[in-house]
Amino acid sequence: MKKQLTAALCLNFCMFSGYAMAADDNETIDVALIGGGIMSATLGTFLEELQPDWKINMYERLDHVAEESSNGWNNAGTGHSAFAEMNYTPQRDDGSVDVSRPPKITEAFEITRQFLSYQVLNGVMHDPGSFLNNTPHMSFVWGDDHIDFLRKRYEGMQQSSLYKAMEYSEDPEVIREWAPLMMEGRDPSQKVAATRMEAGTDAEWGEVTRQLISALSEKHDNFSLSTGSEVRDLKRNDDGSWKVTWADLNDNGKEHSINARHVFIGAGGAALPLLQKSGIPEGKIYAGFPVGGQFLVTSNPEIANRHHAKAYGLAASGSPPMSVPHLDSRKLEGQQRILFGPFANFSTKFLKDGSWTDLFGSMTTSNTLPMMKVGLDNFSLVKYLIGQVMLSEDDRFEALKEYYPDAKREDWKLINAGQRVQIIKKDPEKGSVLQFGTEVVASEDGTMSALLGASPGASTAPAIMLGLMERVFPEQLASDQWQGKLKRMIPSYGQKLDGNEQLTNEIRAYTSSVLELGDTQPTAENAKRIEALKARARGQEPGSEQADDADSEDTAETVENV
């Protein structure tokens, strides 16, 4: 008990006091993770499972991990599954709706659910309700044209096995049952429509990040976390490794350096400037455009407990995808809340806790002209941002009342959320383009990599990191050792869920059971297979010392069937 208490106290000191567990200068490690957010936490967790003998260091500029984009107050908290986000399904010029993108996002989030389930089953994470809760996802529209769009979207998505459980209604009373606050006080003559997926989730990505990094620090001797440590330079060594120079902000900025065979920059808005410092040619084609977000929030339990959904609307004509309004049920710091937004604001900072010089410092001779061209080509974005900056308190409240007609101003307050840096990328045909979403950038030899961009981001971190490992660690990923472990962690790894309704239902029932979501129940046909998946995740499959001999034959058969 004394040993456990001592370990817990040491961990708390290292995680939350800003103490830097620094390696000696000139030491060589296997992987340097820059940034203490969800991406670095996910990659570190994968690598410690797949290659536990590798030495991994994580560097976080702030005194605590998960304080920027991953923090629950700095993002929408949606488990992005493409169930409700209508910006993922644009309407074509001929009036049809393009539903090709949602399955890719949905499958990516199913990987996230499996990744989190594995961590819970193996004691890496605990108390699923602290970081993921069942919250139905809705798309909500009004007006004939928008209703026609939503109906076509629903019909198109019904062709995929991933959305068979989606409901559609134009009946105000049905929609009132789904989201009473959105219908109370609404003009009864207004035509409305909505879709609903019961299997939606509300996520606290900050808590996910904290639990993952806590387990890495506590359970792995080869992992080291340095908080209050700002990486300031990246230089390639003659042997192909990288010299990482960082400053201890808790020791008057005293600089240290370490050599790393691989570097991953998962530093949110700070990723672009660090990628530029590396000098790799793959990073020279990028620039960044910062956009901040604000939300109206209520913590009044009489209101918050009556809205159990993430209800997404349509962005106004001419506005960018990140402006999609949504009325979200959230669980933050253990309390139910409702957030409405986002409202954009402009800042030259790349991080919420960044510098006003971030944007100007990222401008180089190779990306300044592309940035200017994007500004000219995306005048609607510029106009939108100007309009958002000019919004008054009355304007924001009127926008809220379109989704919650009976809202009272005294129940709501405005909060500043996180900063996002949208990707500006050179394009051989257009010269340059403003790109929404995330993008992995890696050097030709795979020793330097970074993640740029934003949404859906945290929701698809495991899928993004799997894609990164395919590029950065191709030989290891092809090995039997890594393949076997990945299939234990992600039972659907290497398989496609879209078009396989049986496998989709089994995987959803498995993760729903482990994560205590209750959105998909096991059936008589798949119950044994689901238990087999749990046993395999715990290392209790037939042949392991922990397996129950009486169940070995049944378990072997069910795992093989999955």
TrEMBL record:
Pfam families from the UniProt entry: Mqo
Pathway(s) where this gene product acts: Carbohydrate metabolism; tricarboxylic acid cycle; oxaloacetate from (S)-malate (quinone route): step 1/1
Family (UniProt): Belongs to the MQO family.
Recorded catalytic activity of this chain's protein: (S)-malate + a quinone = a quinol + oxaloacetate
Keywords noted in UniProt: FAD, Flavoprotein, Oxidoreductase, Signal, Tricarboxylic acid cycle
EC number: 1.1.5.4
Enzyme class: oxidoreductase
Biased amino acid composition, Acidic residues: 546-562
Disordered: annotated span: 534-562
UniProt protein name: Probable malate:quinone oxidoreductase
PANTHER family from the UniProt entry: L-2-HYDROXYGLUTARATE DEHYDROGENASE, MITOCHONDRIAL (PTHR43104)
Cofactor: FAD
Signal peptide: 1-22
Source species of the chain: Kushneria pakistanensis
